[in-house]
Amino acid sequence: MSNETISIIFQSITLLAVFAAVWQLFLRSTAMHRGMEMAFVQRYWEIMDRRSPQLVIDCKPTPEDELIILQYLRLCEDEYDHRRLGKLPSQTWSSWRDAMREQLSDPHFAEILQKTAPHYPGVRQVVAGAPNLDPHPRSRFIQLWQGS
C-alpha cells in the first residue's frame, strides 16, 4: 500500500471521527434542552394544579391564588431568561411565549402583573412586545446550528 493510500485512509477516519464528535455534541445539546423543558413543564403543572376551584371554575381568586399567580409570573420570567441566554430552543420559546400571552390575558393574572411593576420585566415584554418577540439575539444560522 502506498503512502498516499494510507494518508487517504487516515484522513477519512479523521473526518468520520470529527463528524461523530459533532453529532455527539448535537445530541447532547438536544438532550439538555429536553431536560430543561421537562423541568419547566413540571414546574408549570405544580403551580397550576394548586389553583383553587374558585379561580378555575368561578374566575374568583382567593388570597392563595394570588401567590400562585405570582409563582406563575416567576416561572414565566425564568423561561424568558432561559431563552434570552439561548438555553431554550426557538420552537419551545415560540409555543411558551404564545401560551404566556394567553394566560396573562386573564384579568386576574393581568391585574397581579400590573400590581407588581416594575418586577418581571421579561414577562412585561412578552405581553407588550411584538408577536414574534424573541429575547435571544442570534442569527437564524446560529440558532439552527445550536438547535435552539
Report on the structure:
The protein has 148 residues and is mostly helical. Helices cover 76% and strands 0% of the residues. The chain is built from seven helices and no strands. Helix 3 packs across helix 5 (107-115) and helix 3 crosses helix 6 (121-128).
Short description:
The chain is mainly alpha-helical and 148 residues long. Helix content is 76%, strand content 0%.
List the helices and strands and how they pair.
Layout (H helix, E strand, L loop, with lengths): L2 H46 L4 H6 L4 H22 L5 H15 L2 H9 L5 H8 L11 H7 L2
Helix pairs in contact: 1-3, 3-4, 3-5, 3-6
The tally of beta strands, per DSSP, is: 0
Class by helix and strand content?
A: mainly alpha
Integer average pLDDT: 85
Strand count, sense and closure of the main sheet? none
> Which series of helices and strands comes N to C?
HHHHHHH
Overview features:
single chain, 148 residues, mainly alpha, 76% helix, 0% strand
